[in-house]
Task: inverse folding
């Protein structure tokens, strides 16, 4: 009898554990599940179920440019919670690095993880840092970096965002997810609401535009005028777009790279001359690796940025292009995987359809975003055109 009672108690306990496991692993995607008094389980934007501490104090940014997503949520808590980050903010967007480290000098002393773009990431280093949250992006999986399998097998609390595939929705989803994880849901909702309102000013009006649909060539301005940078298109059926390819698709233009390049790669220079686009866009940032690269950002001036943009028009054969002759050559900030990308989308919409979006004020809206949500002040030049 005594043995039977023990067996019964064991069975009941096992059933309880099984039921608890089923409950914590079968909740609808995107919802928080409390596993215990100090844990939460979520589904990230790569579809992975991740269990983390409910109170997150130690954050690693594998891609330091994702500070744009954390900063509006954490504000002045940012330097206390970020314990390590990747080198890419300094190499790919040096002005942002300077702006954030001016505000929070301790960020300069953060340990650097290896670059996520060169398979230099050390999972062992991440483990020794004992993070509560590791923020990554879904593109790491899609590009097949070698360290991804090791990262996912490490047991680290890795949460994937998806800022690259759809610039019109990805950052809002990421902010919403981080808001849940960090106990900042109200703030996240305010940010997402503002950004969606700004994007809707473009998306809703696109349905009724009667202006002619122009042909557009867009190029990442990282390599400078002497070498063609990547453009964004899609090959295959169904077509899959990323970054600026998705933006151009949503803006309903004739993207000359569509059907010619796969997602992101340089185009044949002769093809640009042959197609003779109505509009040319060179995206800008503050890349430190190439002299003459297109510069926009916190410390760029309109005169300097326009002078850099002008140099692109001096490429062989470009003087005869329609876009150059009519001065329909523009630059907007490159990074589409940031929550403030809405301003670049608005600026581009206004450049492409000037009559339909005559009343749109992208720079003013970006200033307002910084005033309301960012812990650093707005400054610099984020969009420019030839005059």
Result:
């Amino acid at each position: 009898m005594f043995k039977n009672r023990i067996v019964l108690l064991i069975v009941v306990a096992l059933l309880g554990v099984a039921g608890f496991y089923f409950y914590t692993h079968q909740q609808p995607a995107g919802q928080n599940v409390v596993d215990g008094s100090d844990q939460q389980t979520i589904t990230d934007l790569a579809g992975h179920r991740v269990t983390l501490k409910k109170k997150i104090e130690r954050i690693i940014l594998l891609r330091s440019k994702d500070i744009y997503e954390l900063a509006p949520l954490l504000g002045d808590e940012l330097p206390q919670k970020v314990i390590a980050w990747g080198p890419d903010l300094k190499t790919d967007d040096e002005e942002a690095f300077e702006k954030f480290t001016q505000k929070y000098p301790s960020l300069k002393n953060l340990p650097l993880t290896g670059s996520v773009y060169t398979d230099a990431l050390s999972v062992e280093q991440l483990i020794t840092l004992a993070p509560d949250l590791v923020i990554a992006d879904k593109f790491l999986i899609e590009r097949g970096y070698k360290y991804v399998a090791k990262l996912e097998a490490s047991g680290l609390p890795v949460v994937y965002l998806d800022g690259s595939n759809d610039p019109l929705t990805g950052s809002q989803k990421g902010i919403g997810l981080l808001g849940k994880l960090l106990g900042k849901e109200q703030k996240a909702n305010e940010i997402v609401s503002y950004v969606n309102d700004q994007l809707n000013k473009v998306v809703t009006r696109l349905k009724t535009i009667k202006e002619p649909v122009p042909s557009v060539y867009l190029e990442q301005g990282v390599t400078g005028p002497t070498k063609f940078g990547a453009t964004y298109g899609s090959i295959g059926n169904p077509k899959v777009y990323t970054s600026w390819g998705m933006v151009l698709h949503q803006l309903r233009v004739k993207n000359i790279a569509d059907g010619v390049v796969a997602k992101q790669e340089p185009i044949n220079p002769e093809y640009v001359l042959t197609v003779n686009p109505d509009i040319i866009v060179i995206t800008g940032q503050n890349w430190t690796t190439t002299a003459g690269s297109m510069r926009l950002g916190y410390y760029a001036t309109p005169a300097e940025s326009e002078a850099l943009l002008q140099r692109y028009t001096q490429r062989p054969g470009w003087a005869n292009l329609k876009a150059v002759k009519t001065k329909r050559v523009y630059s907007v900030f490159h990074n589409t995987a940031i929550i403030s990308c809405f301003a670049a989308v608005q600026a581009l919409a206004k450049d492409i359809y000037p009559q339909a979006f005559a009343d749109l004020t992208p720079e003013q809206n970006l200033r307002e975003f910084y005033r309301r949500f960012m812990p650093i002040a707005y400054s610099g030049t984020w969009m420019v055109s030839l005059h």
In short: The domain at 28-193 is CATH 3.40.50.1980 (Rossmann fold). The two ends are 94 Å apart (CA to CA). The chain has a mean pLDDT of 89.
